[in-house]
């Protein structure tokens, strides 16, 4: 969807739609962040209402998930991504961030919290495990450090060590990769990871484990294939066989991510 179209559609709130309660580990409000439960629930509803009205609504859960990950993984969930949009890894994320900034304008909700609410919505709308993020975070006023995000050209050791340093287990890291890439697109939006880009499941883990090039409806990043090939403990293969295992590990990954 064109950026200008997004800006116009942001102004449309067509209905009030109740979604599951936004659980918050934070208190009802502080001097720095005066929001409370009602404010967060209303904001989550507003984000849902707006993205549901977009012509490409099915692509927004992945966009929200990606923006949240790129914010939280760098220096914690602090809204620093607003100052990092000129970085190569954040190309095309600017649309999502500007959208959220417009939605929260003149409200008490921080960008950091809006990004976490977006990740919760992404999980709900794609059928992922329930996610309840701690809310009440104030936004930072500066960019986070460079070089903190994984890159598709890195080898498995570099990627796994990057996540280990952030406190993730290997099982959580691989779940984050293969569950997260079961939705959405890459290559400037040209390629969908799976045929059902708006449905969370374990088909992407199966594909990367088998490496079946005849599956032309699937597309993987180089790092996706490397991580599966180098998985000596058979974690990715187990995710492909056992959806419950992937659910549990992915829930743990996302819970840690949004609490960073």
Task: Walk me through the structure.
The chain is mostly helical and 260 residues long. The protein has two domains: 3-12 and 30-126, no CATH class; 156-257, Peroxidase, domain 2 (Orthogonal Bundle), CATH 1.10.420. 48% of the residues lie in helices and 2% in strands. The chain is built from eleven helices and two strands. Strands 1-2 form a two-stranded antiparallel ribbon. A hairpin with a 4-residue loop joins strand 1 and strand 2. The two termini are 31 Å apart. The model is unreliable at 1-31 (pLDDT under 50).
Brief description of this entry?
With 260 residues, the protein is mostly helical. The chain has helices spanning 3-9, 37-52, 60-75, 94-104, 111-126, 156-165, 170-180, 203-210, 222-229, 235-241, 243-257; strands spanning 185-186, 191-192.
